[in-house]
Amino acid sequence: MRPLWLSWSLVAAGFISIDCGAQNTYTYDKINIHFEMDKGYIDSGENMQISTKFIDGQYYYHFYKNLRSFPNGTRNCYTLRPDKGKGNTYLIRASFWYGNYDEKNQVPIFDLYIDVNYWFTVNTSNNIYTEIVYVPQRDFIQVCLVNIGKGVPFISALELRTLDNSIYQIESGFLRLDFRYDIGGLRSSIR
Ligand SMILES: *[C@@H]1O[C@H](CO)[C@@H](O)[C@H](O)[C@H]1NC(C)=O
Ligand SMILES: *[C@@H]1O[C@H](CO)[C@@H](O)[C@H](O)[C@H]1NC(C)=O
């Protein structure tokens, strides 16, 4: 399988780019991608901002500034409705940076699910993202943060790209990419 970031740049239409917790929409000039607020994708949680001492620091990337955190409820889900609906292949990326937003200096650990499928356990102090290739059986996709009793779940950004079905030949189900990045200073590798 080719490295994912390659296919990430190959995809064209069918973008959903959500800056979770953001107060406004904007276009990120460097990559000319329009980021939306998460209003309309989720009802629960609250908007927060990382500690100001991290903004513009080594690990900073525009969509890490705001995040949405979920102090209430075990399971909080974003609902994505990609244009092409069910049966298509999508690449979904979830990004996280704790950034001491709650000033507790305690990085939470929580689970991420896609529909009913376990996807990933998030445990990060620096920024990371995780990606999955997924073929939904319904016209919408739920990305859920699940509280496992180790701190309040949060998310910084959620992105969806429609893939050419020929890139990944999976008929149904999902394919988690067996790598994840602790991006550190390499933020320029995000496209
Ligand atoms: C969480 O629940 C408490 C108590 O019901 C409520 O006051 C608070 O607004 C809720 N917070 C969020 C983000 O939903
Ligand atoms: C979370 O990450 C920290 C730092 O890498 C590690 O020490 C800890 O064991 C991890 N916790 C879990 C539950 O994986």
Give an overview of the whole structure.
- It is built from one helix and 14 strands.
- The longest helix is centred in the first third of the chain and has 7 residues, at 4-10.
- Helix content is 4%, strand content 43%.
- The chain has one helix at 4-10, and strands spanning 15-19, 26-28, 33-35, 46-49, 66-69, 75-80, 89-96, 109-114, 117-123, 128-135, 141-150, 154-155, 157-163, 173-182.
- By secondary structure, the protein is mainly beta.
- Strand 8 and strand 9 form a beta hairpin.
- The two termini are 19 Å apart.
- Strands 1-13-7-10-14 form a five-stranded antiparallel beta sheet, covered by helices on one side. It has a four-stranded antiparallel beta sheet with strand order 6-11-8-9, with no helix packed on it.
- It has one domain: Sandwich (Jelly Rolls).
- Bound molecules: 2-acetamido-2-deoxy-beta-D-glucopyranose (NAG) (2 copies).
- One 2-acetamido-2-deoxy-beta-D-glucopyranose (NAG) binds at residues 44-46, 71-72.
Q: What coarse outline follows from CA principal-axis ratios? A: globular
Write out the distinct hetero groups bound to the structure: 2-acetamido-2-deoxy-beta-D-glucopyranose
Integer-rounded radius of gyration: 16 Å
Which structural class fits the helix and strand makeup? mainly beta
What is CATH's topology name? Answer: Jelly Rolls
Major sheet:
5 strands, antiparallel
Termini distance? 19 Å
Number of distinct beta strands: 14
Give the ordered list of helices and strands.
HEEEEEEEEEEEEEE
Overall pLDDT confidence: 82
